[in-house]
Amino acid sequence: MSNATLPAPISSGAMRRRALADFWFYFSENRGAVIGLWVFAALVLVAIFAPVLAPHDPAQQFRDALLTPPAWEAGGRSEFLLGTDAIGRDILSRLIYGSQFSLFVGLVVVSIALVAGIALGLIAGFFGGWVDTVIMRVMDVILSFPSLVLALVLVAILGPGLTNAMIAIAVILQPHFARLTRAAVLAEKNREYVIAARLAGASRLRLMFKTILPNCLAPLIVQATLSFSNAILDAAALGFLGMGAQPPTPEWGTMLAEAREFILRAWWVVTFPGLAILITVLAINLIGDGLRDALDPKLKRS
Amino acid sequence: MKLYKKMLAATALAVLMAGSASAKTLVYCSPASPEGFDPAAYTGGDTFDASSRTAYNRLVEFKHGETTIEPGLAETWEVSEDGLEYTFHLRKGVKFQTTDFFTPTREFNADDVIFSFERQSKKDDPWHAYTSGVSYEYFDSMEFPTLIKEIKRVDDHTVTFVLSRPEAPFLADLAMDFASILSKEYADKLQADGKMDNLNQAPVGTGPFTFVAYQKDAVIRYKANPDYWNGKQPIDDLVFAITTDPAVRAQKLKAGECHIMSYPAPADIEGLKADSNLKVDEQAGLNVAYFAYNTLKAPYDKPEVRKALNMAINKQAIIDAVFQGSGQVAKNPIPPTMWGYNDAIKDDPYDPEAAKKMLEEAGVKDLKMKLWAMPVSRPYMPNARRTAELMQSDFAKVGVQAEIVSMEWGEYLKKSSDKDRDGSVILGWTGDNGDPDNFLGVLLGCAGVGNNNRAQWCYQPFEDLIQKAKVASNQEERAKLYEEAQVIFKEQAPWATLAHSTVFMPMSSKVSGYKMDPVGIHRFDGVDIAE
Amino acid sequence: MLRFIFGKLAYLVPTFIGITIVAFGFVRVLPGDPVLLMAGERGIAPERHAQLMAQFGFDRPLWQQYLDYLWRLAHGDFGTSLITKKAVLTEFLTLFPATVELGLCAIILATLIGIPAGVLAAVKRGSWFDQISMGTALVGYSMPIFWWGLLLIILFSGILQWTPVSGRISLLYFFPPVTGFMLIDSLLSGQKGAFASAVSHLALPTIVLATIPLAVIARQTRSAMLEVLGEDYVRTARAKGLPVRRVVGLHALRNAMIPVITTIGLQIGVLIAGAILTETIFSWPGIGKWMIDSIFRRDYPAVQGGLLLIAILVMVVNLIVDLLYGLINPRIRHN
């Protein structure tokens, strides 16, 4: 890998602006990523405006309309576009409200994992020695369990519920951030600009946050996007196994778990929540791919 | 070498199977793996179905489909005047099963009976702790260790149980699963071979079916015992296909992969009934699902508040949405099939308006309630969370804010017993023996407070009645007392009685001779299948 | 090479100790009381409860229980299930072949489709094949597989009735397990139709479990190929007029395989997590379903032993991948 382009001596503000423009250029070239971004934006809007968009209260039970099929099927009713579940709740409304939970789960999990992972990675990389050893070994231990297995046992300990599921997933996702950050710190630590900053009397904390961190943001952003979709999938899986969000929460995985007994009788209660999960995760992964292509200089050149 | 041997065995078996191509095989889709094959060491119904009801017999047996006693391995018996000595005359010529792993050299005799009980009672018996963590829950909870003073071997075919106190239900107790008779000869052989663990893995008994093989979490195979003392069974092979998911069990039954199944999901029953290749037997379950308030805590200490809340619950909606019609609204704490059931009692009407008014009159405003929902599905309550969701919305209509609480099952059972419990719990009960005291006494008596009495309800007039009923000698008199007790129960409303479920047994229409059992056991002796 | 292996092993020792602490610690702080769970609605007398807790050894100080645990581990004793009263290791090994069979079939399927698809997509970069296959791969990668499994059941078992609903083989066939792998055992049994039955039972679970690894392998192969195809020597070879197929086959593919093999090795964790969901959906009697059941039944020793054995498994597979990697790529060894 040869560094063909030497950075021109320009102000940091202009450089940042140019980098951003560069990034957007490459990102918007990727059609999938742009579609993903649109879908994701739409989902965010749906989540925010759920009370306006949802035709019914997600918890309201229409006792005269148990397991009504979608509107276009025989026996369907126009006021329940995607049908109703076993106790007569409108599936569309539940899906709309469910988007709040999925996005919330992704956001919270990634935030926790990101903050914890970066902090641990910075500490490990910067201080080295036994601190590094201990932290990284703990990360190794966490990573040597398959993620879902560890999350399951963690939730079993903490008690089933959405909050605990989020904590468990954050715990299993953060080692990736810690490893990335540590590797970046180790790589950057002895670069000239860091040494220069150090000689100029910058404090360690300042060095860590102001100087080194911005230089390893790219892989962290890509990892964060990946973790976002993983968090949604894992939370849904936990919900499906009865260890995630608890009914009557309209979380998509939990809705699927409740619907399982109707698999041969009412296809709509099974199909739509899964489809919602797939679309959301797919959109985020599309964005992630776009980000990686735009931020990874290696692939950019080829 | 070992592999080669195994392969040889496989080929031999294959030949054997091919030879019996016309064998009649009955496949039962069972809901769970057996915990083991030693019925005395467990309390779960699936374990009993797979061990005591196939491979084993007892001294006396429940009549098929009933709770009355008939002779089993004991042909006759007599009880001494003082009720302290039970002498059993054992059936002669009974053979233990011959299997790949054991060939009996002698017939069943008194030694087997003594072994089967003493291994559970005598702490110094080498079989008392033959495998790690083994314990004898039923034997202990029936108080047999103190009840049985001695078991005397009179001769080869006569044994006498000497009791320390008279105990009317003793005979019925001996028909229960934990009292199954094992082969002492087999046990001795296992002990000599140093393979005592196998007693819990490869059963040998005198029962109608001989154990062949168990593939963990997948299949249990039996063949009809050719030497069964009561005649060989009409079917040749019996297979338990372990299938935990009820929807999958139903699907397998429809596809002909099994011939009979237990515990269908309420949602599937309609479809199963509509299938012309199937028939669905049903029976009122000996059970009740209830919603217990903590009567020690305000405002639930006031009967009028409890009554008002009861009136806010739309029970029919629960029957429709949760039981999918496979149950009936409960008005009394005991099931209608039980003697002593008071059918004259009128249920509280579903009337949110009146309920709201009653709450206001009682001075209850902005009530916030924790609503406990069990995390597991039971025959009396297929989906407690769904029930809780329905009740939550019912309560909201009368201005009561309910928060659904759930926790791990063991924790749930423990914390719901607590006298200081915050909230009202959904729970239920399945009867053991068909006696009203098994419901009213156990679940609502003063002794049960802090334990099985989830309402923590100790009300003297009620307590007096059930205590009187317990010692009364004739059933008519007892029934009257229990009927009165139910009137008091209804007035005081410590529970909302939710439902009695119906138990269904879907099977292929080729199956004949299956009898449903009131206490939820699945027996396949006497069952036949058309080719 | 030996030094490399020993270095790797030495590195694993503290991780292993960490794993034992986690397996032991986690399970010991699980709420819920296994004795109460065994008693069910009927309850249990406090004295009897205390007696049973003592019998299971739950009443002693934690550190004592831990040392005890290590001591027993060192003797190959992974504990005894509270439910079946059998050794956890025996239980695990009984069910393990079912999971291995499923996992192997899934990874083979994923590799057989994923690598050619990735190579072709890379070679024909930007073509409709590239776009469609990579689009499909991304959908596969985003798939909630528990839902995917349900959909396949609805379609193939419910509507079309092509495949059986659950289990490993039709109950008509009965032969004692020789290898534990149903595909092999059914062939060895010599029973007509047994193999076909085993295959039809295996088909849907394999597809479901293979979905994510397949997507990952295809994507990884493509990007590794692209990278290699962009390197100087490949360009040179191409410039020299060597036919594309030879360039791809000889030079590029071999070098591109290095990261792909690592990717395949790393799928083991994904496979086990997937096995939990897949086995639950298809009632497949393997270790994934067993873990779930054990967690719900509060079978402490089984959860503990299972957690540890799974972690060891992952560790061993990763070690093998590392070694393979070192073997193919000598540069790594000296790093």
From TrEMBL, chain A:
Topology of this chain in the membrane: Multi-pass membrane protein
Family as reported in the entry's similarity comment: Belongs to the binding-protein-dependent transport system permease family.
GO MF, one annotated term: dipeptide transmembrane transporter activity
GO annotation terms (biological process): protein transport
Gene3D superfamilies listed in its UniProt record: MetI-like
Compartments (UniProt record): Cell membrane
Transmembrane segments: 33-54, 101-128, 148-173, 262-288
Keyword Transmembrane helix: yes
A Gene Ontology term for the protein's cellular component: plasma membrane
Chief site of localization: membrane
Pfam families linked: BPD_transp_1, OppC_N
Keywords annotated in UniProt: Cell membrane, Membrane, Peptide transport, Protein transport, Transmembrane, Transmembrane helix, Transport
Domain ABC transmembrane type-1: 99-288
Protein name from the UniProt record: Peptide transporter
Source organism (scientific name): Paramesorhizobium deserti
Keyword Protein transport: yes
Automatic annotation (TrEMBL), chain B:
Principal location listed in the UniProt entry: periplasm
Top-rank taxon: Bacteria
Tagged with keyword Amino-acid biosynthesis: no
UniProt record, GO biological process: dipeptide transport
Domain Solute-binding protein family: 68-450
Keywords associated with the record: Signal
GO molecular function: peptide transmembrane transporter activity
Cellular component terms (Gene Ontology): ATP-binding cassette (ABC) transporter complex; outer membrane-bounded periplasmic space
Cellular localisation: Periplasm
Signal sequence range: 1-23
InterPro entries according to UniProt: Peptide/Ni-bd, SBP_5, SBP_5_CS, SBP_5_dom
Pfam families, per the entry: SBP_bac_5
Protein family (similarity comment): Belongs to the bacterial solute-binding protein 5 family.
Protein name listed in UniProt: Peptide ABC transporter substrate-binding protein
Organism: Paramesorhizobium deserti
Automatic annotation (TrEMBL), chain C:
Location(s) in or outside the cell: Cell membrane
Source species, domain of life: Bacteria
MF terms in GO: dipeptide transmembrane transporter activity
Keyword terms: Cell membrane, Membrane, Transmembrane, Transmembrane helix, Transport
Keyword Cell membrane applies: yes
Pfam families assigned: BPD_transp_1, BPD_transp_1_N
Chain ranges of the ABC transmembrane type-1 domain: 96-325
Membrane spanning stretches: 9-30, 100-123, 144-163, 169-188, 195-218, 256-284, 305-328
Gene3D superfamilies tied to this protein: MetI-like
Membrane topology: Multi-pass membrane protein
Origin species: Paramesorhizobium deserti
Main localisation: membrane
GO cellular component terms, semicolon-separated: plasma membrane
Database matches in SUPFAM superfamilies: MetI-like
Name recorded for this polypeptide: Peptide ABC transporter permease
Sequence similarity: Belongs to the binding-protein-dependent transport system permease family.
